[in-house]
Amino acid sequence: MAIPGPGTPLDLTDIATEFGDSAPHSVSEFYRGGGLVPDSAGNSAVPTSGAIALGNFYGAANRVALALTISSNTNNYNLYSTASANPSYVAGTTDVTLTVNPGITVGSTSTGTYALSIPSSFNPGDNVTLVNNGTIVGRGGNGGNGGNNAAGASGAAGGHGLYINRPVSINNTGVLAGAGGGGGGSGSAAVKVGTSPKSGGNIYEYFMGNGGGGGAGVNAGSGGAGGPSGPHVGNPGSPGTATAGGAGGPRNSTPFGYTGAGGAGGARGSAGVAGENYGGTTTNLRYPAAPGGARGRYITGNPYATWVATGTRLGGSS
Fold first, then answer.
1. Domain segments of the chain: what residues?
2. What pLDDT does 210 receive?
């Protein structure tokens, strides 16, 4: 709590109480940056040396309140990088509050990077509060490719929303979400369509697998490609959207069955769906479909969190 402004009676005991000094007190103990009084913008009237008077302490405070706001869509936000670059920040005596405004999204450009990070770089004496009124969500996982004379490829895991590695108070009235995992690709198949009249050997046609759909995220996952070998190429999966996973590439019909559809991408907080295996006669050579990607986590570092309000939380946590 700051010392009141000019016009309010002030004595040395008031200053000692604000800055936690024990008796006996001397005004010379309270130079700015000298150990008791933080060297902050709010304490700029307190000298660092030389003449010092009680009147220099009007409005001074032992702790610094630093309010930061995310008011436009952004990606890969690191709170410590932003806070520590602010002139008002003083390590160990700052109360940092980050507010994400309503309608604002904080996303990530990579499944390997969190949408919003609050690392351990802060001084243990700092207090950190996150007020989320918007949406914080990781990047969607890409769909797996359809098999090209081979098995389908697995969908990629969805990215993660929030990372904390120190105590944080969280007031979530918006959405914290892990991204959706990508859908798995289906495998290709060699379909027996006849027998050679000369050799008596089997005649095959080759049908390629279909791609999985992309997972949901502010930056959504892309759909997987269909197997490219002709003439029976696979169908690509569709990309995800901000909230929903994309559809997998549809089935390819063959004379005796079908190559399976690619798996759908996961919605926010959901895993991708596995690709579909070949359906038809058992005499054909077929490659297996692949699994979908895992869902992303809405938070990593949950033991550090104090939840004032939980809001909407989608996905895993650790």
1. 12-57, 64-142+156-179+296-317
2. 98
| Strand-pair category, 189-195 with 285-286 | antiparallel
d(CA 89, CA 41): 9
What single-letter amino acid sits at 307? Answer: W
Query: Phi and psi of 144, rounded to 5°?
Result: -75, 150
Using omega within 30 degrees of 0 as the cis cutoff, is the peptide bond preceding 124 cis?
no
Indicate the burial class of 225 (C-beta count within 10 angstroms; 0-12, 13-18, 19 or more).
buried
Tokens in use for 102?
A: 């309503």
Percent of the chain predicted with pLDDT > 70: 99
Q: In what order do the strands lie in the sheet with 252-254?
A: 252-254, 257-259, 279-280
pLDDT tens per residue across span 149-180 = 999 999 999 999 999 999 999 999 999 999 99
What are the distances in angstroms from CA 139 to CA 180, 218, 256?
8, 6, 39
Query: Looking up tokens 């990077």, which residue turns up?
Result: 113
What is the C-alpha separation between 306 and 303, in angstroms, rounded?
A: 8
pLDDT at 281 over 80: no
Instruction: Walk across the sheet containing 94-100 and list its strands.
Output: 64-70, 94-100, 127-132, 168-172, 305-309
Q: What are the start-end ranges of the H helices in 181-318?
A: none
- How far is C-alpha 107 from the chain's CA centre? 6
- Confidence (pLDDT) at 200: 82
Q: What is the pLDDT of residues 49-95, one digit of tens each?
A: 999 999 998 988 888 899 999 999 999 999 999 999 998 898 988 99
Read off the amino acid at residue 127. N
Judged against a pLDDT cut of 70, whether residue 283 lies above it is answered with no
Distance CA 62, CA 181 (A): 47
Predicted model pTM: 0.87
